[in-house]
Amino acid sequence: MNNRIVSVRFDRWIYISLIAILYAVPIRGRAQTALTISGDVTKPVTLQEAEVKNMPHTEVTAKDHDGNEHRYAGVALVELLKQAGTTLGGELRGKNLRKFVLVKGADAYEVLFALPELDPEFATQTILLADAVDGAPFVPGVGPYRLVVPDEKRATRWVRNVKAIEVRLAP
Description:
- This protein is of the alpha+beta class.
- Helices cover 23% and strands 32% of the residues.
């Protein structure tokens, strides 16, 4: 009889522990991914996935690492920078030309762009913070956001799992 009581208590303890773990650990598919834009900006922002999804989207076609062309949809990086109050357009002269943008991935991969590379008054290409490829969201490990630089010969400045964008002033 005592063994049965011990067994029932042990089973209850396991059951309660499993329930506690399930509620304490966030489920991957439901977690919102925040994107921060900070540094030398007038209004640093943190955007949730839903906010990025509701921004005006554009599409570009580019060759991925696999050598095949894909259709990417997302928000132009310059539009995100505008939302954070980054110096652009006519203000981008003198010391402001020393500003650069550092795009950071969740895996600590980082790439750098001179701010004029992103400004339509200086450059013709659209660099995209993509949230979809060929009409589908990115698979885990690549998204929810991927930086796409369509006109470069090599996709070395493409960043998977973009988590942060920083604007800095070079010394």
